[in-house]
Every structure is written in structure tokens, then in C-alpha cells.
Amino acid sequence: MNRAESIRHNIPLILQQVRGKRRHERQMIYAVMRLGPLGPPLVIVGLVGLVALAALAAERETSK
Questions:
Q1: How do the residues of the chain divide into helix, strand and coil, expressed in percent and rounded to 5?
Q2: Res 24: pLDDT
Q3: In Å, how far are 24, 25, 27 from 21, measured between CA atoms?
Q4: With 0-12 CB in 10 A as exposed, 13-18 as middle and 19+ as buried, what is 32?
Q5: Are 50 and 43 in contact (CB under 8 A)?
Q6: Which pLDDT score is estimated for 21?
Q7: How confident is the model over 10-62, as pLDDT tens digits?
Q8: How many domains does the chain have?
Q9: Domain boundaries, position 26
């Protein structure tokens, strides 16, 4: 099972863990709101950046 398949396989488990962290999630949302109007776009850009980095790392691992 390659990395992408294992991630897809673990998505339901990850979602369950996230649901268990509702209070923490709410605190995160409040923290984002405190950043003002630029908060949400910055967070989205950050998440996209993390996904891109993860994809690059996975690509580098497979190319070795």
C-alpha cells in the first residue's frame, strides 16, 4: 500500500479524531477570526502550502 492509498484509507479515522476535537476546533476558528478579514484566506493558503509540501516530499521519496 503506497502512501496515497494509506492516507485515503485513514481519512475516516482522521475525521473521527477531528470530530472528537470539537472544542479545540472552535478555539482554532476563534483564533482565525481574531486575525481579522485576512485570517481565513491566510489559513487556506497555509493549508494549500502544507499539502503542496507533502506532495513534493512524497514525489521526492518515490523518485529515489
A1: 90, 0, 10
A2: 72
A3: 5, 6, 10
A4: middle
A5: no
A6: 65
A7: 767 766 666 666 777 777 777 777 777 777 777 788 889 999 999 888 888 88
A8: 1
A9: 3-63
